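Hey, quick one: can you model this chain's 3D structure?
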Amino acid sequence: MENKTEDHENKKDTIDQENSEKLTSIWKDLKVIIKGILDIRADTDKKGTIQDIKDGISMKGHTAWVLSFSILIASIGLNISSPAVVIGAMLISPLMGPILGIGLSIAINDVDTLRRSLANFGVMVAVSLLTSFIFFKIPIFQDITPEIKARIAPDVRDVFIAIFGGLALIMAMSRRTKQTNTIAGVAIATALMPPLCVAGYGLAVWEIDYFFGAMFLFIINTIFIALATFLIVKFLRFPMVKYINSAKRKRIAQVATAIAILIFSFSVYEFTNLYKVGHFKNNAKHLISDMKESGIHIFEVEDENIDYHTKTIKLLLYGNSIPEEKVAFWKSKLGEYDLEDVNFVIEQSSSTDIENKVQELTDLYVQNQEIISSRDMKIEERGKKIKELEKELNKYYRVPFTKISAEARANYTGLETLSYGNVMTTNFNSIDTISIFGATWYDSIPNTKQQEEKLRIWLKIRLELDSVRVINNK
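Sure thing. Here's the predicted structure for all 474 residues.
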């Protein structure tokens, strides 16, 4: 009996060991598969990537002109609110070069490339601002459009786009076979150009808030793209630039590290602030949505009515006034929306205010209808006048005399000459115009009166005239 028990336990241990070995083998195979899918080191061209980034840093000559033209195209797209035109401009713009150069140079301690990248970055910003400023300084292009409004302040989602766009861009560029579609897609998604154009617009129309807001959005995108480049270059272990003086190399490495830490800290700080602003506005919108669903009538909420910095939410209600108890109820629920310390202001518009507003709209509608009716009457009067003038002109109907005279000569062989003119007659009650034809007949024609009558009837029918007179010129 004991032998059977021992055999059973040994058999169980053997099965457990085999299962454990199978699981270990599966896990190893899975790790190999995952590594093969996610590993980016194997297909990295470090030397070629460094050279490609360095080649794209310069903002001189052809590149500067291409940048100027693309800024103009983007400015036109913003002015006419055409996303397609703006996207086209972003595809041809060379804005990424200096930004990638900054991230790369800090990562590999290349001080020369860093200086060159910063200098060209400054040139890039200056050329872009100047070009867009000149365009928007033209008065007919100064109208604010939805495309411009959408780029006067950063959002936490812009940060995510810049981070992931920058990661995708440097990964695509670091491959031995470049993924040009990825590079183009990142240029569109990160949208560096439109904020620069809007900043130029802000300067042109002297809206300083627009300028600083758009520049802030541009700088945020720039920092996170450069940061993404820095992280991937470090992860892929690109070769560090070596200097003959080891002390100098160490000092440069320390400065580069300090710059990277400073930029990273600033990026984290700004990201946190943008996240808090987005979280605050999102919670406020949820609160407002729930209030509307409960039957409270709220006017459309503008962005300035939800202010994170002053922790204020201001709502304007319409319709029947809600009691103070209900106002107090919603204020007590602020904690559920993570809005505890918010200054919650509710302004109720009285029914009289609504009636006055409706009356104003009604009066405006009546005025517009009167204008339209008056315009229609003027159009009708002008139409009648045109008809009268056409009728008057018909009296001066110009006879195709050359053609008529040729036909008359063919029909009436005795006709020697033919003349034509319009004569105005009046009976002192009205004025009429009569077409008169003068005919001269050869002496061989015995009965000219009969011929003249036939000619008169023919001319009346041929020319479709009400009255025709034929006289003998002799």
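One thing worth noting: The radius of gyration is 43 Å.
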